[in-house]
Amino acid sequence: MAPIIAMIAITKSFLGHYLGAREGFNGMVIKSLRGKGKSIEINKLNKITALFMLVTTWIVATLNPSILGMIETLGGPIIAMILFLMPMYAIQKVPAMRKYSGHVSNVFVVLMGLIAISAIFYSLFS
Questions:
Q1: Which residue ranges traverse the bilayer (predicted)?
Q2: pTM here?
Q3: Are residues 30 and 75 in the same domain?
Q4: CA dihedral defined by 71, 72, 77, 81, rounded to 10 degrees?
């Protein structure tokens, strides 16, 4: 009974991820085409999406990248952008936060954020 439950769980997980990714990909393609004044038949787009996902999955399975390494490499700089740079950007762009601009500490926070983000470039080129 356990293998049957495992297969059902794997199938449901795949379908959930696939259908969500397909809808997102289709939405991006439709929006991009709409911006150019074009359209595409939904059945044709679904076939293109399925082929794209098959090829992409095949390449990823063949290359077998380290997922933990990717999370480690990309997670830190993304969190640094969220924690350091986005608030400083908001201080400059949001009128209600304008009262916090002009402090020397803002330069320090941006500098520390850029140093944290530079880790991704260091790991790419070393």
A1: 48-68, 74-91, 103-125
A2: 0.60
A3: no
A4: 50
